[in-house]
Amino acid sequence: MSLIVAKFGGTSVADYSAMSRCADIIIANPNTRVVVVSASSGVTNLLVELTQEQTTDERRKQLIKQIAHIQYQILDDLGRPQEVAARLDSVLSRIAVLSESLSSNRCKATMDELLAQGEQCSSALFAAVLREKGETASAFDVRQVMRTDSHFGRAEPQIETIAKLANEQLFPLLSSQRIVTQGFIGADEAGSTTTLGRGGSDYSAALLAEALKASAVEIWTDVAGIYTTDPRLAPNASPIAEISFNEAAEMATFGAKVLHPATILPAVRQKIQVFVGSSREPERGGTWIRHQVEEAPVYRAVAVRRDQTLLNLHSLQMLHAQGFLAETFATLARHKISVDLITTSEVNVSLTLDKTGSDSAGNGLLSEALLQELSQHCRVRVEDSLALVAIVGNKIASTPGVCRRVFEVLEPHNVRMICQGASPHNLCVLVAESEAAQVVSALHENLFEA
Ligand code: ADP
Ligand code: ASP
Ligand code: MG
């Protein structure tokens, strides 16, 4: 069987009519056996607010009411099937219990269990929408197979165990029915719920596709594919019909929110094609991400990642010495921080850290403990409110004239840092957050609309 895993994001499962459109997409293809859903649009944000320390009892009640309103509206539109109503009641009371418990004990495992409840609701509702349309479908608790480590808020999937469990527990169900399951969440060995970080449902779909050796993953969202830049920033951005794994990975890494940065990894490992399309307008087609593509243009897209932090480390110990970087990276690794861009001079190292590396509850990366540890061997300066703009393409490092074209556009802006040369697929500049939109649209105009 040529198996397809289809993932539907928050706006695609926002309400009953959106879910109904997605169900039609699934029904049109008998090979789509596994459906991965995000929480209905807005629900995870509400749950994140419920996990925050400063949320008052009064606000907590309002938030739970808002979540209940979104979910029960879909249930009403479905005609209130008994078993789904009971399931929603139980998830909603669990949300109340977990958020109450967090107000006195800020336990990370409880936060993840709370954040996971949005996907519990949407998957139960979505399976019911498929059944309403005459399909044999059920909701499957992904925690039975999506094994991760216990790094709550940003758990690491355990690839081999996931493959084993998915083949034992999920695969046998697929011949007789469609399975609707949750993105974003998993469970550790002890059975505690974990989450993969915000936007992680794309990653979940790719991991399940890898485990089940699917032939394709479909990412259904609110745009008709991957565009030359975020269409919200440049109205003239155009959809890309076909793009390589490398280019798509760079785009996702550098902020093209349409794909979670880790989505491409499982697809590359198993050479699984990825499709990105609009669940609202499936007839418009979308983007295929493939191992081999026909065209490899120098300029493919412009991506932007906001909320960047620049760490500037200064130490005279670096002068003609060895080991400073090793020590710095070891400290960062102990704090589970992955560094993105780096530039060095004789006595300075600048590196960027990324808010998307923060955990599902939005807790930042830079802790007091980390800063103190770093300060023991160098002077540390932290700059915020920066954005990283990346030009993504091919042979960027070996094509004459790229820098001239890019710098021409950047002339009116202060560029805080430039990274080019390590990868043939990108050129990155760090600019003030407040100028990012302008830089992106000017670059897009110059590189794609000329
Ligand atoms: P979902 O909830 O379906 O996962 P997301 O909001 O996470 O959807 O991702 C879709 C959004 O990604 C689009 O609405 C768009 O604004 C944004 N985006 C950023 N860069 C790009 C790009 N290059 N191409 C298409 N969409 C992009
Ligand atoms: N619901 C989660 C989030 O909002 C995961 C996802 O949508 O991919 O981050
Ligand atoms: Mg997303």
Automatic annotation (TrEMBL):
Single GO biological process annotation from the record: lysine biosynthetic process via diaminopimelate
PROSITE patterns, per database record: ASPARTOKINASE
Any single Pfam family the record assigns to this protein: ACT_9
Annotated family: Belongs to the aspartokinase family.
Enzyme class: transferase
Gene3D superfamilies tied to this protein: 3.30.70.260, Acetylglutamate kinase-like, Aspartokinase, catalytic domain
Protein name per the record: Aspartokinase
Superkingdom of source: Bacteria
Residues reported to bind substrate: 44, 119
The Aspartokinase ACT domain, residue ranges: 317-359, 389-446
PANTHER family to which the protein is assigned, alphabetical: ASPARTATE KINASE (PTHR21499), ASPARTOKINASE (PTHR21499:SF59)
EC number of the protein: 2.7.2.4
This protein's GO CC annotations: cytosol
The protein's annotated pathway: Amino-acid biosynthesis; L-methionine biosynthesis via de novo pathway; L-homoserine from L-aspartate: step 1/3; Amino-acid biosynthesis; L-lysine biosynthesis via DAP pathway; (S)-tetrahydrodipicolinate from L-aspartate: step 1/4; Amino-acid biosynthesis; L-threonine biosynthesis; L-threonine from L-aspartate: step 1/5
Every Aspartate/glutamate/uridylate kinase domain range: 3-277
GO molecular function: aspartate kinase activity; ATP binding
Catalytic activity: L-aspartate + ATP = 4-phospho-L-aspartate + ADP
Alphabetical UniProt keywords: Amino-acid biosynthesis, ATP-binding, Kinase, Nucleotide-binding, Transferase
Residues where ATP binds: 7-10, 221-222, 227, 232, 257-258
Matching NCBIfam families: asp_kin_monofn, asp_kinases, PRK09084.1
